[in-house]
Model the fold of this input.
Amino acid sequence: MTSMGERYSTLDILRGASIVAVTLLTIVLLAILPAPGYRTSRLVLFTVTIFIGWIGAVGAVFERFRLLLIGALGQFLLGFWNFTIGLVMLPTGAVLLVTAFLLRENSDT
Done:
């Protein structure tokens, strides 16, 4: 936690952006879930996608590189597989990936 007048680091901002990105991903996927053509396979795909996103978010909160990487790569792989929802997943994966690499860079110093 920072005191008044203290600046947030880039990593802190990206960690917050990771949470916001995964929250928006969850909201968007839940909003389009009941769209016409609903099947159980869509529910399973969205559940897996949201779960992987939140794994990355947990990695951002607790500064765990591997969890961030799992979340980012999962979003990229599932986003390319189903490009319609990939329009939401790929930016989320990008935010998680940048956060992971910045976390890794800061932990080496």
About this structure: The radius of gyration is 15 Å.
